[in-house]
Design goal:
heterodimer; A: mainly alpha; Histone, subunit A; two-stranded antiparallel sheet; 3 helices; 39% helix; B: alpha+beta; Arc Repressor Mutant, subunit A; 3 domains; 9-stranded mixed sheet; 3-stranded antiparallel sheet; 20% strand
Chain lengths: 100, 496
């Protein structure tokens, strides 16, 4: 663990980008764990040769398209049914901070 | 505004502006990018949503074939290469207008790349290199409430309408544009204008800047003349008209010039354009890294076959620049006259009017004269005036037939613009047709001569210019509804 690929500061930044609040104790505990995962992935990468293409999709498919045809949407009530708060047919969200 | 500005001439004497333009084009597909919800503008809020565009867990996006086709056609029209294989990517960020907390976009594998667009400014051609054109989706619309003026600053909360979420967008990004010198703002404007013409000719978007179906973010930086390293740039958003692009860039160039000339450092940031004529700082730009892009696992790769690409290439309309050259020679206008037409954004309007039988000269006269003046007075773009090319063609046919003269035609235009119907209808309801009854005309001529004995005597004595007063008197009596050349000959006959 002496040579960590992922520093506590990097984990803190990722947590911030992901809007997850972590205490110093949690950061100290999670950073080494995430680092271990990264190291394991790195070992797999070493095994995979140049002849193995990186996989981004589970199934080997291409060009899965649909025609440009409109189909009925759900009702406004259904759309809003999962909203914590709705107002005036719209989703109501708290004050947006830290943005111009 | 309190920004220090360096006069443009001084900026250009010391610095080279470098442009970068990002244009978002909203496609006019019937359905959204990844689901079958309608894209219609102005529908009841949240009535055009489904689990896919609301980003609900377990929903599966499926790509709209027409959107891919439109992306490829735009790329081909911009002289781009078309990727033989590419993927969508997730651009991760949190903002209430994004339902999924990522935007489905493309990252390092855009569908179109490495193109260019030639634009002309005052007879000089500039090649604007296009880095990429990629597919992505639009976000929802926010309404900020509480606080003052509906702005996000000071708002208590916001309401979201996701009808626009998932509407297909094509983002077209230039490479840094060098070598424009003092023409940088004009080149930027000409580029967006040419791009709009191309996209409109392709028929893949409404490209109306004022409605947001074409949006431009204008990047600019300055570097000392002779330098090779790019300066720090700003990205100005909220530039909603061609004129604003030019103005916003001129402003930024002067603002950055003042900072650099003072030995300062430009802050790399997003800025907002205000129509009052200045920019203000927005948020500091997040780096690409912070978006944590990764390939979209739910959408299989796009691999357009070369056959499909060539099929689409065959559907491209005549390139706008070639069309302009053709129309100019067909219409027989000089370079200067044609530049006026382009500058007034009247090319399509005049072309449509000519196609309906009007002469090019008359079409130009109306659109660049009376109509341009009225659009300007009303603060409207020319094509937003409430008169169609067909109505202008009809107006001119009434003039050509002698039913009305140019003066009456202006009243007809006023009638059409205020919703009184077609030119023919306005002529009828306002009784504007020229009086062809010789008896009535002759009576007015006699009366004018009797009332202006001095003028009549002058004409008899051979001083032709005095006839103006008599013609004017007759036209007043006839309330303008007379053919001036006919009035002239009747006066001459009466006095001979």
């Amino acid at each position: 663990m002496a040579d960590m690929a992922l520093s506590v500061a990097e984990v803190a930044k990722l947590a911030d980008l992901a809007r997850i609040e972590l205490s110093d104790e949690e950061l100290a505990r999670l950073a080494p764990q995430l680092d271990l995962i990264l190291q394991s992935v790195a070992e797999v990468s070493e095994v995979a040769g140049a002849d193995v293409a990186p996989t981004s999709h589970a199934v080997p498919m291409e060009n899965v398209f649909r025609e440009d045809v409109v189909r009925p949407s759900q009702s406004v009530a259904a759309a809003l049914s999962g909203a914590p708060v709705a107002e005036d047919g719209r989703f109501r969200v708290p004050q947006i901070l830290g943005e111009e | 505004m309190s920004d220090d500005l360096l006069p443009l001439a001084e900026v250009y004497a010391r610095y080279e502006p470098v442009l970068g333009l990002e244009v978002h084009v909203e496609l006019n597909t019937a359905s959204k990018m990844f689901c079958s919800c309608a894209t219609e503008f102005g529908a009841e809020p949240n009535s055009q949503t489904c689990p896919v565009c609301l980003g609900l867990p377990g929903s599966l996006p499926v790509v709209n074939a027409k959107a891919v086709e439109s992306a490829i056609r735009i790329g081909l029209a911009l002289n781009c290469e078309i990727a033989s294989w590419c993927r969508f990517a997730r651009k991760n960020y949190f903002y209430p207008d994004m339902t999924k907390d990522w935007q489905t976009s493309q990252y390092d594998e855009p569908i179109c790349f490495n193109g260019y667009l030639d634009v002309e400014v005052e007879g000089e051609v500039f090649r604007v290199p296009v880095e990429r054109a990629h597919m992505e989706e639009d976000a929802g619309k926010l309404l900020h409430l509480g606080g003052a003026t509906g702005r996000i600053q000071g708002a208590d909360y916001s309401l979201v309408d996701y009808n626009r979420a998932g509407v297909p967008l094509i983002e077209i990004v230039t490479k840094p544009v060098f070598g424009t010198g003092p023409k940088a703002p004009q080149v930027a404007r000409a580029y967006v204008s040419a791009l709009r013409d191309i996209v409109r000719a392709l028929g893949v978007s409404d490209v109306r800047m004022e409605q947001g179906s074409l949006r431009c973010d204008a990047n600019v930086s300055l570097m000392p003349i002779g330098a090779t390293e790019l300066g720090l740039r700003t990205e100005t958003k909220n530039v909603n008209s061609l004129r604003s692009i030019e103005r916003a860039l001129s402003y930024e160039i002067q603002r950055q010039g003042a900072i650099l000339a003072d030995g300062g450092k430009v802050k790399q940031e997003t800025r907002h354009w205000h129509e009052e004529g200045y920019t203000s700082p927005g948020r500091s730009k997040e780096t690409a890294e912070d978006y944590r892009y990764f390939p979209e696992p739910d959408i299989p790769p796009i691999a357009p076959s070369r056959e499909w690409v060539e099929e689409l290439r065959a559907t491209l309309p005549e390139a706008p620049a070639a069309r302009r050259r053709r129309l100019q020679s067909e219409w027989g206008f000089t370079d200067a006259e044609f530049r006026d037409i382009i500058g007034a954004d009247a090319l399509d309007l005049i072309a449509d009017t000519v196609a309906l039988g009007c002469t090019p000269a008359a079409a130009k006269k109306w659109w660049l004269g009376e109509l341009a003046r009225r659009a300007n007075d009303a603060g409207l773009e020319l094509d937003a005036l409430a008169i169609t090319p067909a109505q202008v063609a009809e107006l001119q046919s009434l003039v050509a037939a002698g039913t009305i003269n140019d003066t009456l035609a202006r009243q007809v235009i006023e009638g059409v613009l205020s919703g009184e119907g077609s030119p023919g209808e306005v002529v009828a309801t306002r009784s504007l047709a020229i009086v062809s009854d010789d008896g009535a005309l002759l009576e007015a001529v006699q009366a004018a001569i009797a009332a202006n004995p001095d003028a009549a005597a002058s004409i008899k004595a051979g001083r032709q210019q005095a006839i103006g007063a008599l013609i004017g008197a007759v036209m007043r009596t006839m309330q303008g509804k007379a053919d001036a050349s006919k009035v002239r000959s009747l006066i001459m006959e009466s006095l001979s």
